[in-house]
Request: fold
Amino acid sequence: MDGCSSRFRTSQDKLFALFLASLLYHQQELTGKDAASILAEFGLQLVKPAKIPFFQPFLPSKQEHDHGIAAQQKNSMTVDYSKYLTVLYGLNNAEWYYIKHHQFVRLIEMPDHLREVKEDGSDDDSDYKDVLFSNYNRLLLHYNVESITLMSFHVSEAQQYLPMATKLANLREIVLTKGKAMPDQHLQDTVAFIRANKQAFPRKPCLRLDFSRGWQCNDMSEFTSIAQSRTLVSDCMTARVELYRAIGEPEELDAQIIPRFYRMMEDVGTERLLRLYDSDNFRIDVGESSDMEAFLRRCPRLQTLALSTGHPFILSWAAQVARDQADKLQQFNSSKTLLPRLECLDLGSRRPYRFDIHALNDGMTAFSQTLTAVYVKNGHGFRVRDQEEEAWFLDRDLALSRQIRTAPLANTIGDWPFLLPRLRSLDIYIRCAGSLRVGSFDKCPNLEEMSLHYGAVGSGPRALEPNDEDPGNENDPRRQAPMDTSMFPKWNLPKLKELMLCGAPAMLFNYDSLEEMSMLEKLTLAVDRTTDLQIWSQDIPRLSTYTNRFNAHVLSGDTTTTATTATGVENTAIATDISDGSIDNASTVSSGNDVWRGSWTLPMLRDLDLRGPPATAFTFDLLKRLPSLVSLCLKLTHPGPCQPLPLVAFTPAILAELEARDRDSDDGDTIKDIPQSGEVHVESKLEKISIHGPWIITAVDLVVLLTEHAPFLKDLSLHMTQMSEARFFDAFRDADEMLRRRFGPEWDARPIPNGDLALSCEEASHSLSLPFKPLPGRSLVDVYGNCHVGAHVLMDYMEIIDADEVGDYRGHGIRVFDVWDRYFVHKRDREWFKSVRAGEE
Reply:
C-alpha cells in the first residue's frame, strides 16, 4: 500500500506542478501581471525556495544575473498545459488529496477558522488542504473556463462557482457530492448554477449529473416494512429530482431508489433521454408499475435500460405489449414498438435468481428487435439459518418465489419466441442457481459474445437440509434443487467469437456445438473448486468419462502411488518416479479424444482457458485443430488428484536428436527413456502457456512442450511441476540445444562477445555477424516456476540477479526464471549481458 501510494503521489505532484507553472508562464504575458499577483488574487503564494524547478523563474532574486536568466526562461514553455486540464475537481477528491502541495504552493493568510492550524501545511492538515485546493480550483477555472468539460464539487461550493456558470461553454458533466444532510440553500445554489449554465448556452447538450458519491441512503435491513424504508428514502432523495428538473431534457437519469420518481418526472422532457438506471426493488409492490410504463412510452431514443429486478414481473407488461403487436402486425414496425432504439438491457439484483430469469425472458420478448447486448447479474446467496437479515424481504421473496417456481419463464433461458436479429452480446451471472434449463439459442444467429456462469459457484453458503422444526424450510425455493444433468442442445452460433462457460454450463456443454463455431477466438470452460456439481457428474454420460480420469480412485489400482505436491498435500496418481523424470508411456499418449469427440476445427481460436475437470479433457494433439492458438491455460483445482500432462509423444526423428544430445553431453543429468509413439504438431503458434495445479510434469514433458508443441513460446508459467530443480533447468538446456540443431546457428541471433560457451569456435564466429532479432528459442524470456533451487544448481550454471535488473535482461532477449520471487539467469547469459553492458558504457 505504501509503495502504491508513493507512486500515486509522485505522478500527481508532477501533474499539479506542470499545470500551475504552465498557467503562470502564459498568463504573465497575456495579463501583464507577474506570477505573485496572479496567485495573490486567489490567496495563494509560491513556496520559497522552490523545490520543483518549474517555479524557479517566478521567484524573486537579489542578483541581476539571476533576473536575466528568469527573463530568458519566462517564455520557454511554449505549450500552455493548463488548457488540457478539462476536469476540475472540488473538495475531498482523491485525485488531488495526496499532492505534496507544501513543496511549491501555500495560502497567503490563514482563514479565521484555521488560525490554530500549523502554518507548515503538512499532509495531515486536511482542512487546510480543502481551502488551498478550493482556491486553486477557482484559479484554474478563472483562467481556463473555456476548457472545462467536467466539474466535481460539493454542493456547498455551488455558490462560489455560480459567477462562472455563464462562462462554461463546454461543460458537459457535473459530479455532485454532499454530506449526510443537504441544506435547502445548498440545493438552491446548485439548481441556480445548472440553470444559469443552461440559459447561457441553450444549444449546448444537456448536462449529465453524476451522483455516485454521497447520495446513498440507509441500509434497508434497518427497517421492518417497505413503507417505512421508502419514507426515509423520499426525504433524502427528493433533492435529486429537483436537480434533474433544472436540467430540462436530460440524456441520463438515475432513478436510484427514489419513491414516485416517474410520477414526479412527468413534466420533464424525455426526447433526449438515452440512459435510464433504476435500482428500486419495490416499484411493483407499491403500485408504481403503471407510472414506469407511462414514462417509458415517452422515451423514443432510450438506448440503455438498467433495472434492479426486485420483482419477477417488472417487465411483464412490456412483453405483453410485444405479444399483442405481434398478433396485429406481420412484421416489425419501429413506430409501433415500445422503446424502438433500446440496445442494452441490464438486469441485476440480490433477490432470488428466478426473478432475474423471469425478467430476462420478458425483456427478450419485449425488445427482441432492437437489443444488441443483454447483461444479467444475480448476487443472491443461499439461506443461512440464524444469519438472516432483512426478514421482511425474506417473507416477500418466498411468496413470490413459490408463485413462479415452476413457471418456464423463471427456469429456462435460450428458447425465446421471437428472433433477436441484432443481439451480439449475452452475459448471465448467477451466484447460486439450482435447475436451470438452457435452450438452443436458435433465435440468436448473430451472437458474438456469450458468458454463462451459474451452478453454486463461489464462496456462498450451501442451502440447509429440511428441518422438521422449520416446515417452511423444506419448500424454500431458494434451496438448491437437483441439477438438470442433461447436456445442452447443440448450438448453431456461426458468428460467435467469445464463449465463457463457468460452473454448471462448463460441465454440461455439448462439444458438438464447436462444429458450428468456426469464428470462435476465445473459449473458457471453468469449474471452481467450491462447486458442488461433481456430485452429479456420474449422472451425465459424457462427464463421467473424463471425471473418472480426474478422480484418482478410478485409475488402475496396481499402478497408483502417493505423491506429494509442492505444498505438502499427498495425492494419488499414476506410478512414476517424479524425481528422475521417467513416467509411464501412457501419460504422454493422447487420451482425451473420447471426450473431445467430433470432427470440429477452430481455425480462429487464439485463447483457450480450461479450469477444473474440463482441463483433463484436453490433449496437445488438439493443436492440429487449433492452428491459430496463441494462449493456453490448463488449471486443476488444488488440493486434488495429480494428473499427467496430456502430451503427444516424440516422433522417431526428434527421439534421434535427443539420443544424439545424450551421447554428446558431458553432464550427468540427461533425459532418457523417451516414448516413440504419437504424432507431433510442429507448427504451433503458442506464445503463452500457464499450467497450474497438481499436474505431473516431468523433464521429458517439458522438453516436448518447448520443442514440439510451443517452439515459439514467449511466456511460460508452471505451478506444481513436481520435478527436481536440476531436471527443471536441464529441460530448458535440452530444449534449447534441440532447437539450435533444428534452426541452426541462427537460432540464437544475439551478437556473442568472447564466444558462446556452448558453441564451437566456428559457430561463434558465424553468430557474430547475425542480426539482432527475436528467433524461436530466444523468444521465451519469461519463465515462472515453483521448484526449489538448491545451492548445487547455482554452483553449476545458474546465477541470481537483482529484481531491478530483470527488465534489462529480458529487454536483451535473455531468459529470466522467476522462482518463488527470486530471479535466475544462466551463467552464460550473465557473462554475455555483462559484456554487452560494458560495450554500451
In short: The chain has a mean pLDDT of 74.
